[in-house]
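Internal ticket - ligand job 607, flavin-adenine dinucleotide:
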Amino acid sequence: YDIIIVGGGHAGCESALAGAKMGKKCLLVTMNMQTIAQMSCNPAMGGIAKGQIIREIDAMGGGSGIITDKTMIQYKMLNKSKGPAMWSPRAQSDRMRFAEEWRLMLEGKENIDFWQDMVTGLAIKNNQVVGVKTMMGLNISSKTVILTNGTFLNGKIHIGEKNFMGGRSGERSSVGLSGQLQKIGFTLGRMKTGTPPRIDGRSVDYSKMEEDNGDLIPKNFSYLNEYTLKEQKPCFICHTNERVHEMLSKSFEKSPMFQGRITAKGPRYCPSIEDKITRFKEKERHQIFIEPEGWNTCEIYVNGFSTSLPEKTQYEALRLIPGLEKVKMFRPGYAIEYDYFPPTQLTHSLETRIVKNLYFAGQINGTTGYEEAACQGLIAGVNASLSIDKKDPLIFKRNEAYIGVLIDDLITKGTEEPYRMFTSRAEYRTLLRQDNADIRLTEKSFKIGLAKEERYTRVQEKQDQVESFVKFFNETSFDLDEVNKILESVSYEPVPQKGKIDKIYARPNIKQKDIRRITSVEKFIESNKLDQEVLDQTEIQIKYKGYIEKEKANADKLQRLEDIKIPDNFDYNPLASLSHEAKEKLNKIRPSTLSQASRISGIKPSD
Ligand code: FAD
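stdout (structure tokens):
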């Protein structure tokens, strides 16, 4: 094979798809063919900053956006009250259909083979990976290997005082690989995460809960806009109360977290219910989202109630929540500990520094979340393919993509707790919006042979239309009477003299529907047959012009440091002005540019 992908999770699926689309012969080895693209935790894609990542994956020709569109049961654009840099699409997904559609998509690619087995070791010659060894005793050779083992490496599940080996509820953990990697020099760490119980929807009294609906006009994650969500399923909101907290607290002495049976770090921003009760003692109640798992199942995901307390406690506490008095549980919540490899051991291409042609992607790198895993999988698949073709790797800068921010953070700073993406991690978030990922990334992806020509042509057409519409606003004068009527209707003072329409559109109270009341604007839209996406993109470019230009200027300034490359074999030791700590860090991370060096924690401007 050209590429062996170990693991059929979100990272592995994107790796296989990217490799296959780039013409590489791929083998996907996964422990259970039935759980390809399984959503281990909540049945939802996107959300703040994560939605932007899916749009980026889609802009490049990855699968996560299309699969989400095909299988969502509810769509929401989050943060609509804030500026467009903060808008983030989120979907409630049909868990079973999501996995099914991913499998069908991969099966539709001729150059992907599948094999159900556990990879227990790597074949390595002269510091280069040359294949994998499996539990069933197979030796399979390949030019490159991508490890995407998720939470499975020596995974240990905890429920109350019980604990047992497992990679996910009902699945085995993966053994062998971690030990071999450690022996050949990789540093290994332990992390933990948790998930809430799943309940029987037939036992829920929804009349005692608040209904939470999706957007009236649902949009898509994929720029191809191939699927329209015609019907949506509601979620519901309920709350814990003091009786629930009391019930849970009674079992704290059985908690694996509080009793020190789990020492690994978990995601701070996704705390368990027991964590929330302890950390926010003053809060009388916590919000719980009752989320359907799909169109055709009555199973419900209890979002906000992640726990590893004994299953009996979980059950009894749930029954104290209004609406859940008669609840039946399908599966208890649990916590899981697993091995990960600190990502400072990788280069920006996601290839390991220790073993050539070996790539790591997803939760194995200390991240958490489907979107974070999927985008790494895509980049690893792309870069394994490019390396086989002896081409330079694809590396996104921090001002080009959230994917660039994520990988640069991991490689440069490492992570000691599960890393998830936030908009605040991106310095240039006004540039990295969910609406323009296609304009930012599709051309690059097309040039390396991943995005198809149809996708590229579409983006070019959109870009041309937006440019000409923006030019129209910048260059066309308005009719004074017509504009003053519009201004008055939104409580603005009339303007004394004529000017260009962009100045009117830039005003905060002037919305798209208002500007379309100008006859020449509506005529331009009609004669050029502009669609909603073009109208929205133009609006953002005009209204946020100042912010966008300022951020671009800042990014250009930083680019100068980005352009100063540091040779990989640069010797820091003779530099007398560097502190011992700085030398140690620079030798460990081996930054490839002066800019990356400046982002390493502990490296000072004087260094
Ligand atoms: P996974 O989706 O875990 O997939 C790994 C794949 O590799 C599986 O198919 C497995 O069978 C296969 N595999 C493993 N080892 C081998 C081997 N040796 N040989 C062959 N195949 C192998 N994310 C959030 O964002 N928020 C949360 O609250 C959250 N909670 C979670 C709670 C739990 C209990 C779990 C398990 C995960 C949670 N996650 C959460 C994380 C989310 O599920 C992962 O980030 C995401 O699934 C990682 O994708 P991945 O592709 O890296 O790995």
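Auto-summary: Residues 453-475 form the longest helix (23 residues). Residues 6-12, 29-32, 35, 40-41, 118-119, 148-152, 167-168, 174, 177, 193-195, 270, 336, 362-363, 368-370, 373, 420 surround flavin-adenine dinucleotide (CB under 6 Å).
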